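Recall the central idea of this unit: under ordinary conditions, the amino acid sequence of a chain determines the structure it adopts. In this exercise we apply that idea directly, starting from the sequence alone.
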Amino acid sequence: MTDIDDGSLQRIWQADTAAFTPMDADQLQWQADRFGDAIIRRNRREYVAAGLCVIFFGATLWILPGWLLKAGSLLIILASLFVAWQLSRRTSRPDPVAAATDVRTYFRDRLETEAQMLEAIGRWYLAPLLPGLGLFLAGQAIVMGSQGRIWFIMTAGTLVLLFTIIWLVNRRAAAQLRQQMSWTDPTGYGE
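Accordingly, the structure predicted from this sequence is:
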């Protein structure tokens, strides 16, 4: 152990006021605006990705042979539309009136909504895509013949890894949003 008495530790702790100082109103408004812009850009990217999935798998629905490929394509199209709808439904919305009256509460509410959405991403974003992808990959493996089994295992493993990474990254982002919520606490002491 060290020879530091409790009084010196308390003085060091009390001197660190930056950790307990809440954001001022202008800085908070800037953060809220920046956060809202990031949400708009993210949603736009997701809607474009969903549209591209619908176009690509809509084409494969008509071009590729086999009922598994067609069923998989149709399920992926439906899942893409479902994911876009869920994103629209779950994402936080700008509210200029609420922002003007109490930007701190407004920003915290938006952070909370986004954190909840990101925490549940496995249920509403990833899980709906799995049945269609599974059927599509199985159909592709059948079309490939003897090499299809190895291709299926490698591709399915890659997708499981990719989905796990997406899930973990979004869980981490939700935790960061929850941490940011403590910075917007008017008392400055977190939740």
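DSSP finds eight helices and no strands in the chain.
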